[in-house]
Amino acid sequence: MALGGSKITVKSQTAGRAGLRLVLWLLLLAAAVIFGVKTLKERDVVETDILAMLPHLQQDALTSRALASIENRLANESYLVLTGEDKATTIEAAKAMMAELAASSAFASVRSGSELDPKEIYRLYFPARFNLLTDSQRTLLEQGKLDVLIKQADIALYSAFGFASSELISEDPLLLFPSLMQGFGKGHRLAEEEGILLGNSGGQTAAIIMAKGKDSVFSPKAQEAQLSVINAAFDKVNPANQLSLLKAGALFHALEATQSAKAEVSLIGSLSLAGVVLLVLLSFRSLMPLLLASLTLASAMLSASLFTILIFGKLHLLTLVFGTSLIGIAIDYSFHFYAERIGRDERAGQTLSRILPALTLALTTSVLAYMALGFTPFPGMQQVAAFCGGGLIGAYLTLYLAYPALAGSRIQGSSSAIKLASRFLSPFEATGPKALAAAGMLILIVSAAGLGKLQTRDDIRSLQQGSDALMAEEAKVRTLLSGGVDNQFLLVRAESMQALLERLEALSPVLAKAEKDKLLQSHVSLANYLPSRVRQLENHNLQQQIYGPRLGEILARLGLEPELEAKLQAKYQAGAQAPIEADAFFATALGASLEPLLLEPTGTDAKAQAKPQEWGAVVLLGGIQNLAALNQVVATLPGVTLVDKVGDISKLMGEYRQTTLWLLALALLIAFGVFALRHPWKLAAAMVAVPAVAALLSLSLLGLLGSPLTLFHALALLLVFGIGIDYCLFFAREVNIKQDEAHHSADDGQRVMLAVLLSAASTTLAFGLLALSNTPAIHYFGLTLALGIGFTLLLSPLIHTFKRTLK
């Protein structure tokens, strides 16, 4: 009786502890749900901006301000092009569509043609006409070819299409000022009618509209609102389907990425879950493992999402796509637990106690692998690391706290599954030194062949590529806009405003030649609109050839009254005291539109105040054809830098790729040191060799397949290491049981093999589906992990072979 009472007491105590764990788990789950619901109500936590996933560049203050200015200028800008056969119809439709867009709350501004007032421009420049010259006028005067200018004026005066009025001639006899005004539009192939920019697209009239979204185009709500307004407006102005609509801008790339990510999250998540359900049912022949496995996955995804939001405040859609692979990893704990319970009549707590040390070490290695991702200065991978690490911790806590109370039912399991594990394991039990040597030679040959063909690619555009249709549509719009504005730009520095303008003026002929050499199509510089004081003085001195002693002769040749000579000379002399000043220029609408290109000293940095003030100006570039050649052209100019954020981040990603591979090698060495403290050094070396060889074979196969090596491949190899170590740990645990606990049944190796097979199958399924993603970065990540896990599955049973050598 006493013995029976003791057993009852032990059972009741065990049940009590299991109940307390379950209550604690339920409290944690309730807290997580409450926090999640509250967070979702308070703010939008989903992030779709691909730039938020990119590494942060370490830039100097002026370059950072220039990048911010450019991004603010181009942010949320959408380009809409109406094309039609009839010009008048197209123009009216464009005006109506602009009105519809402007009336909506989705857009902050809508424009097409120039909003500048010609009278305001005239009032700014005409009083300073004696200090202004076009490049061609300046060149002719420098070469002493005044007669050429006189002849041009004579032709213009008596042309049937002449635009000169008597008032203008009396103020500007050589008609230099009209040519100056015409030069402002030089290089632009667009016409303007009724306030609408017009171009030609395949023989049709193209009316161009620029619409700036009120909210970020990377917000799913803003995407839906803006696209809805655009579609509704186009349908309204095109009832007869006579017009077509071309679209370009970040909105349409972001929208396509959002739709693709949502579809992939749904597809990959559903197929991964279906694969897990099938594996559980086929292996354990019971609904209880399926229910608890589902509970584990739900807890993992909940904790992963909340953990990420808690750290970053946002959850990126691409993180969710990556994170769907968590399904294939988090379920491993359930597989190992139920594989141990097959055919055994024992409490769930006993099963958990037996596997908990290996599970804890497996969790530790996996989380450390994810932490390695988190320590890379790459926000995208930091989020993925936090998501997956948090999810694994959630799955582990569910196993530890909920399973003792909920998973006590007996599991008979599938004899077919056990037989499959036995068949998979049996060749490794018969493996001898000769077989291992032959396998090593084969691995060496394959590795050498594949690694020799492996190429690297670090372009950040591998993160996200638009569809062919979207890219073709955008190319048409860029052609209409003479190349548009590229992300690359020139940053010019100087110690003062006037010195800055002088450097911009020195840059202008270099860029003009670059356009002539087809290195780029267009550029926008302050120097084209605001000459320096030095340049204005030079222009004034050059015009002495016109308004000096020869003025009377010039007036006579043009047939103008001689009385104009004295008046013009007086105005010319007074003009030297009336240059265009920066303050007056930026006070106009034209100056305000160009002011974002000027970077004045802020004076906010205490350290910067001790240094000479630094002024900066941005020169926008459009239609760049040869970036490298353009960089060589401007590199020799003082104070001029080509800023290429895409190139800089790509270079940074290449450095991260190399660092990650070195980090992987370091992780392998550290793991060997840790395992050698608990296991024989040969076994520790074998445990580390399995993920190392798996990574090597994965890289070799990538080379043979022609897949380039990117940062995402390298990051995936870190996870191959973490997951591969898990498999080896369980086989190492089985080896220890064979040595230390002789009373254990002979099928322990088969149980471990079954659990590893199920784990590898679910993980490979999850990451294999990622390899089907349309987003190259996700594809590379998934493909590498699928290959790595597959090779790890084939190699990890070799740990089982060591049980004969360790006796």
TrEMBL record:
Q: Where are the transmembrane segments?
A: 20-37, 265-284, 290-312, 317-335, 355-373, 385-403, 617-640, 660-677, 684-705, 711-732, 752-772, 778-799
The SSD domain, residue ranges: 271-409, 648-806
* Keywords attached to this entry: Membrane, Transmembrane, Transmembrane helix
Show the SUPFAM superfamilies listed in the entry. Multidrug efflux transporter AcrB transmembrane domain (SSF82866)
Descriptive protein name:
MMPL family transporter
Q: What is the species listed in this Swiss-Prot or TrEMBL entry?
A: Shewanella jiangmenensis
**Lineage of origin:** Bacteria, Pseudomonadati, Pseudomonadota, Gammaproteobacteria, Alteromonadales
